[in-house]
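Q: Please design a sequence for this.
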């Protein structure tokens, strides 16, 4: 593996890409975009994930700057969602995909599908908890997602989202300032990396002991406004970060229109009084019958979900009509039966979140020996999470996400035939979902409303490559 510290970014890029990608005092230049769709990108992204500190910094900077040059840029979906709130686009449901394990290969499949179906309205996301247990900090996650897009030849905005940037209710009760500061610190890190879409989850603070809905939702919207103001103060020039709120914790009672009205009225009034003119939310997450990861039965199967599409439809209509939002967002959807997904665009659900189903596919498709090794690790390292009545199937299903970080390198290093087999399975699943959710053909809609401004970053500290003010590239690869 080449050393960035010994040779510098320019020499390492030259060693990987030859003259196709070069770095100099003029900035980073892409003279042959075809090289980006080769194993050379695989080498660069491995440096971004598994290199030493200097190599990681160099590779992440290079991936970002290559994206700026050819038009693969982190972007906010805010303007598309606001257009939907105005009724200027409709008929699709944006999938927000939590990429947890084997992330580069999984993301490559997503971008292959997007190219095939001319899809543009999709998000790649990772939650506060997932960042920890998958061992993917925001800078790494952004680099991997952009590298996957470049590797497949995708062009256009890349929507990377912080999912469930959540306030922990128990920790908040002990020290509110410390807990909220933790969410703000994560938002600061994520925005600097290129997360221009963030779901603020303060729904954990809803307090049902109060008599009125406004009082029940008060902490939810007041802390939500506090985090909103923090995020808005960190926005890069030309970017309005898409922010989501949440009114009901997923897995609890279904949300109601009065709850939505109480939260949004309180949120908007509080924001207007504290920061007049500041832009608020673009969407609202609700509960309509799902749970994160599904409900696993003793034999390891997933219980059927009674999803209330009428609730989703009604809440979405109120969100658009009364508050100008894109609509309602559904979490915990990946383990639904296949027949459910075409219902989301029919009831104009703005966005659904998909995670565990893809993790299940990864575990089903990995070599049995590796799965056994992971389960042995869980038995030793997650034993305290096992409930007395849990079967082995229930225990491993609920805890195996915790192994994705410790086994990250082994998942990246799976044999080529295994990765190819999983890739085909992912391709089929993503094509099904994108088709059912109506996002095929949305690249044109995204292009109509979304602009991803060019943003250059200074080269890693200590390198001989200065910050670029403009990147040269083939005209044919200019950003759309």
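A: Design:
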């Amino acid at each position: 593996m080449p050393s960035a510290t010994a040779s510098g970014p320019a020499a390492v890029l030259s060693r990987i890409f030859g003259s196709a990608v070069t770095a100099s005092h003029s900035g980073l230049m892409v003279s042959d975009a075809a090289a980006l769709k080769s194993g050379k990108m695989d080498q660069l992204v491995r440096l971004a994930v598994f290199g030493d500190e200097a190599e990681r910094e160099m590779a992440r900077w290079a991936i970002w700057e290559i994206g700026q040059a050819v038009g693969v840029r982190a972007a906010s979906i805010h303007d598309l969602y606001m257009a939907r709130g105005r009724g200027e686009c409709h008929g699709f449901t944006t999938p927000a995909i939590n990429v947890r394990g084997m992330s580069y290969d999984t993301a490559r499949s997503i971008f292959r599908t997007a190219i095939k179906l001319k899809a543009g309205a999709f998000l790649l996301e990772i939650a506060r908890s997932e960042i920890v247990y998958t061992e993917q900090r925001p800078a790494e996650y952004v680099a991997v997602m952009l590298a996957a897009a470049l590797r497949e030849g995708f062009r256009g905005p890349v929507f990377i989202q912080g999912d469930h940037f959540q306030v922990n209710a128990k920790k908040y009760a002990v020290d509110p300032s410390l807990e909220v500061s933790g969410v703000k610190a994560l938002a600061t890190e994520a925005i600097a990396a290129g997360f221009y879409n963030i779901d603020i989850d303060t729904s954990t603070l809803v307090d049902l002991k109060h008599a009125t809905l406004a009082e029940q939702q008060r902490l939810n919207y007041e802390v939500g406004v506090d985090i909103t103001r923090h995020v808005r103060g960190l926005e890069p020039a030309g970017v309005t970060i898409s922010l989501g709120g949440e009114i009901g914790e997923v897995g609890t009672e279904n949300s109601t229109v009065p709850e939505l009205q109480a939260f949004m009225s309180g949120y908007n009034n509080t924001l207007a009084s504290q920061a007049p003119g500041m832009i608020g939310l673009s969407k609202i997450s609700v509960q309509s019958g799902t749970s994160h990861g599904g409900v696993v039965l003793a034999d390891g199967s997933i219980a059927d979900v009674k999803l209330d599409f009428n609730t989703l439809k009604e809440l979405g209509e109120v969100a658009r009509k009364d508050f100008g939002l894109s609509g309602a967002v559904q979490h915990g959807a990946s383990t639904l039966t296949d027949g459910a997904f075409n219902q989301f665009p029919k009831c104009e659900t703005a966005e659904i979140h998909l995670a565990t189903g893809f993790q299940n596919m990864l575990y089903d498709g990995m070599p049995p020996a590796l799965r056994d090794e992971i389960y042995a690790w869980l038995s030793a390292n997650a034993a305290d999470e096992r409930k007395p009545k849990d079967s082995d199937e229930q225990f491993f299903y609920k805890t195996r996400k915790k192994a994705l970080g410790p086994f990250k390198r082994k998942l990246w290093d799976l044999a080529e035939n295994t990765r190819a087999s999983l890739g085909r399975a992912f391709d089929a699943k993503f094509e099904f979902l994108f088709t059912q959710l109506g996002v095929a053909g949305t690249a044109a809609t995204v292009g109509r409303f979304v602009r991803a401004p060019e943003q250059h970053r200074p080269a890693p500290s200590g390198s001989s490559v200065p910050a670029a003010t403009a990147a040269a590239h083939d005209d044919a690869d200019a950003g759309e």
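Q: Thanks. Anything notable?
A: Residues 4-70 form one domain. The chain is about 50% helix and 10% strand.
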